[in-house]
Amino acid sequence: MIAVPGKESELREVLRGLIGPTRNEPGRRRYEMYESEQKGRYFADEIWESREARDAKGSFSKNASDSVTDGSAVILHQKALLHRGFLGDN
Fold first, then answer.
1. Helix and strand element counts for the chain (H, E)
2. Helices 8-23 and 60-67 sit at what angle, rounded to 10 degrees?
3. Range of 22's domain?
4. Distance between CA atoms of residues 56 and 10, nearest Å
5. Are 86 and 16 within 8 A, CB to CB?
6. How many domains does the chain have?
């Protein structure tokens, strides 16, 4: 995800607030959020028990995109690109 210029700190705080609830979702085995060396850029890595579990919940990128607003001001410039894994995938 890429923050709107000038909104990097706000995006960081929103994403940090979503980590705990995201990790506790049924069917999700792992979720990690990484901050790039480039200011305002974040990457997510998630592993699900199955494709069905992921499809039933939806992806973090959609949920985060829906949640990442600061009042009426958007703070997310570009949606997440995720590395998704499923148990049993090679």
1. 3, 7
2. 130
3. 2-86
4. 29
5. no
6. 1
Q: How far apart are CA 35 and CA 68, in angstroms?
A: 16
Beta-carbon contacts of residue 58 (< 8 Å; ≥ 6 apart): none
Which tens digits make up the pLDDT trace of 24-81?
Answer: 888 889 988 899 999 988 888 888 888 888 888 765 555 555 555 544 356 666 555 4
The CATH number that applies at residue 37 is 3.30.70.100
Contact between 43 and 31 (Cβ < 8 Å): no
Q: What is the pTM of this model?
A: 0.68
Torsion of CA 33, 62, 22, 11, to 10 degrees: 50
